[in-house]
Amino acid sequence: MKIQSCIDAIEKQNEEIVRLQNPCNRKIALNFLFSLFSFKRILSFIQSRSLLKKLAKGKKEDLTPVFYAKGSFLDVSKKVAVYTCITNGYDNVNNPILIDDDMDYFCISDSSKKTKSIWQHLEIPATASKYDYAMINRFCKLNPWNIFNAYDYAIYIDGNIDICSDIRCLCPIAHNSKIGIAMHTHDYRDCVYKEAEACEVLKRGNLGAIKTQMTKYRQEGFPEHFGMIEATIIVVDLKNDIAKKIMTAWWNELLQSGSGRDQLSFPYVLWKNGFKISDVGYLGNNRRKNPKFRTRKHFNE
């Protein structure tokens, strides 16, 4: 009970820190607008101004109440691997603020640099080495069975996200879901097609491939506003066959699309397999305001 009381106190403090740091995210939208004003981007800005207004307006939804899942007790006999994948110096991983001795922490990386870190270094799997840096990350992210088959659960975390509290308790959320996977829902978009528009404005991913991908989805009848997730934190029940089927299909769809944007593929894969966004274990509606985590800028930004 004393440990749980400490965890509750940490999360209460983290909630207050997040609130003070981020009372309104309009500043993010303004910074993004200012970043567009360069000679090379002025034309793109003019062409995309209507969409930019929509994106800036969407940021205001960050003022709505934020909910996050606290999870529940997980038997310490269950083996949990927490991992990240960092290639080409894209991020600089930090030690968790709260380190759980009953979990193992791994950093899959192409760097052999040794640091005094809780994160154990793992080499990039040979099967992933043929891909570019971004797709190496996606391979490790979506194929935990190939790396952690001796574990019961895997928790993937982007390299720019710090662990601030207990996350072992999130594993039962994945276990109790219909598909054995838990993630945050997207903080202000619920539609793959709107996400594709945002990718175009932000110049993320292979834009030609994204257009082809969206055309395919529309032709197959994939609905608008099906729901969106954020794939920055993924909790997976490694003993769940449905989870393995969904994530394998997710990886294959990402490869086939060539878009480089995994968030665009996941809702479609759910739909193709007869599932809904609500069948995904719920970690919260805004990863940036979840007191269990803290998000930093990427190291090279």
Give the arrangement of secondary structure elements:
Blueprint (H helix, E strand, L loop, with lengths): L1 H20 L4 H10 L6 H18 L20 E7 L16 E7 L10 E3 L10 H10 L10 E5 L3 E3 L7 H6 L4 E5 L6 H11 L4 H13 L9 E9 L3 H17 L4 H11 L8 E4 L8 E3 L6
Parallel strand pairs: 1-2, 1-4, 2-3, 6-8
Antiparallel strand pairs: 4-7, 5-9, 6-7
Helix pairs in contact: 2-3, 6-7, 6-9, 8-9
Number of H/I helices: 9
Strand order of the largest sheet: 3-2-1-4-7-6-8
Structural class: alpha/beta
Mean pLDDT across all amino acids? 85
Distance between the termini: 41 Å
Strand portion, in percent?
A: 15-25%
Write down the secondary-structure element order. HHHEEEHEEHEHHEHHEE
Helix fraction, binned, reads 25-40%
Q: Report Rg.
A: 19 Å
Number of strands: 9
Q: What best-fitting shape do the alpha-carbon axes yield?
A: globular
Low-confidence stretches are none
Main sheet: strands, sense, barrel: 7 strands, mixed
Structure, explained:
It is built from 9 helices and 9 strands. With about 300 residues, the protein is of the alpha/beta class. The protein has a 7-stranded mixed sheet with strand order 3-2-1-4-7-6-8. A two-stranded antiparallel ribbon has the order 5-9.
